[in-house]
Every structure is written in structure tokens, then in C-alpha cells.
Amino acid sequence: MHEELLQKMARARDAAYGTLGRMEADVLTFILNPTFNGGPRWPSLRQAWRVIHRPGGMLLASDGLSDPFDDQDGPSMGFGIECILETDEPLPRVQDSWPFQALVQVCQTAAGHGGLRQLLDEMKLVSVELSGEGMPDSLVTADDSVGVLLGMGSSTLPTLIQTPAGDVHLVTVKLLLAEELEYVRQNGAKGRAELARRFARNGEEHLSRARRAPVI
Questions:
Q1: Which SUPFAM superfamilies does this one have (predicted)?
Q2: Domain range summary for the chain, segments of one domain joined by +
Q3: In whole angstroms, what is the distance from residue 96 CA to residue 100 CA?
Q4: Model-level pTM?
């Protein structure tokens, strides 16, 4: 029963991701599942990411946060989210790139928290901090952190993925420059909202770049 539900969710995600661009057939994953090294557990254990090419850039999207929980009977959409990051910076080897490493950190944070969907439903926009290890200098603060804005609005990406178990939220991942993270630290929710407004105004929206001017 669980395997059948798992396949239905996978087909629904693939159908949705396939509308966003040219999706690579192979998924990105790890030889050893991070859960076995003490990392957070995803709903059906499997952890994977999809690469989607579109004109002028690339989408990286999680594939498994909305899998059905393997310890529950009946339909389930796991954590009810998938995370997606878009960049127009060249990525010769995606799995070694900073955008992919940032997305992996976000996904592991979401899996460890377990309630990100509910938090976004309440707050609309959430910021988290990641490790700065291996990240471009422009993103890293003096205390070795990188900021991310989750739930930034987009005019080119859907907010929901329709699945047999319900609507999964597609959460945009926007990397912040170091100055922008400091602005969020100082201003909280108002700072997040102001950054989102400025990103929308200058046309950047959810796009993640390490080489750009700060908006504050």
C-alpha cells in the first residue's frame, strides 16, 4: 500500500516539475542517506533533488519532503512541502555547487523542524540561517552564517503542487547577501517583508545570486 502511495506522489511531483522546464531524468542524492549519520528523517526515508533547466537558468527542487510517511496507513503528503531554488549562475557540476548545498541545508532544516508548512501558513515569509561553510563570501556574515528567505512570492513558479493526498506547498528558497541577513536580524518580520517588497520591485523575486548588489 505504501509503495503504491509513494509512486502516486512521485508521479504527481514529476508532472508538476515537468511543466517548469526540462527536467533531468536522474535525481541528485547521496550514496549514504544522511539520516544514517544522525541527520533528520524524511517521511519515507528517501532524500532526493531534481534539476530542471529553463531559459537563462536552472531550478533545483527537493523530491521527497512530501512523500507519504512510511509508518502511517492511508494517504499522506509527509511534511506537505517541497523546496525550490532558482539561479542563473553557471553550475558546471550541480552537486558540488553552493546553490545545491544551500538547498540541501534548507531541506534538512525543514525535515528537522517538521512544521515548516504550518509556520509559513501563519507567517507567510520565514527566514532561516545556514552554515556559511563553502558558500560565496558575499553571502557569509562575520559569524559564518548565511541567510535564506523562504516563501518569497514568484510570478513564474506555482505555489502549490496538486497530488492525490492534497496540495503540497512549493516553497521558494531565496539566498540573502550578508548585509540583507543583518537587516533581517535587526528588523525581524518587518525586515523580511521589506526585503520581499524590494526583491519584487527590482524583478529579482525568488532568484538566488551571489553576484548582485544588496537591496538595502
A1: Suppressor of Fused, N-terminal domain
A2: 2-122+148-174
A3: 7
A4: 0.97
